[in-house]
Give the backbone structure.
Amino acid sequence: MESDNPSHYKKPIQTADAIMSQMTPEENIGYLRGAALKHLCRFGAKGGQTLDKAIMDVKKAKWYLGKLENYLKTFKADGADLQDTPANVTNLFKDKEKK
C-alpha cells in the first residue's frame, strides 16, 4: 500500500534498518518498541486530528510492531534471550519487596 510505504521512504535501505545496523540487539528492541509507542501516543495528533491521521498512526505502529516481532524471532533463532535487567521496563511494575 502506498500509505504504508510512501515513495519518499523508498530508498536502497529503510531508515529503520540503517539505524538498527548501528546499535546492539537490546538497543534495537528498545528502538522498535519506542517507535511503535510514539505512533500510538500521538494517535491522530500529527497533521490534524482526523480519522485518516489516526489510521495512519495505527498502521505505522503496526509496521514497527511487525518489525519488532520478526527481530525477536530472529534473535531467538540465534539462541539469544532477553536479560532480566533493570533497563527492562517490565521491572518498573514489579512489587519492590518481591525483587
User: Anything to note?
Assistant: Residues 32-77 form one domain. The chain has a mean pLDDT of 80.
